[in-house]
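subagent[fold] <- orchestrator: predict structure for attached chain, return tokens only, no commentary.
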Amino acid sequence: MSLLTIYPDNQPKQGTLYTDFADIERELAALDVKFERWTANRALTADDDQATIIAAYQESIDKLKQHYGFQSVDVINLSPDHPQKAEFRQKFLAEHIHEDFEVRFFIDGCGLFYLHVGDKVYAVLCEKGDLISVPANTTHWFDMGENPSFKCIRLFTTPEGWVAKFTGSEIALSFPTLDKTVAGLK
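subagent[fold] -> orchestrator:
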């Protein structure tokens, strides 16, 4: 289940929770964050390659490419046995911005985006079928959990792809992790 928790940025235990997709979409739209659901045009398997996955979502990808001028599309897949999972997690957990906007579509698994806008933190749990677009220069971080399990389509307007400018803030350490958030749903 997708969810959004909005916290005061200085009170990481005082969040307001939204679980209805329309409510999540509305709250994020106020920040110029695109949040939508996509459906594949065919059944996919865990063994499908990047080309097959992209083809299954080609119509939706083409609409975004046409509207935003994306230059590249790829698929990232992280699993609990990935040898660099801890390194990747620490890198993404550090608060940062991008000059380009960040677009992720979750083909499988889940991840937790935190958007630090003004004096609030918006924690967005994205799951299979969810697309999120974080506007350029929006301060944020991402938690994939201690044992990541997700597959995402990434879209970029720049050939360099993912380039972060880290803020140096340790705010991410104060907020509930993906693992704690998911455990709280059970």
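orchestrator: received. Logging for downstream: The domain at 3-185 is CATH 2.60.120.10 (Jelly Rolls). The helical segments are 21-29, 50-56, 58-68, 85-93, 178-185.
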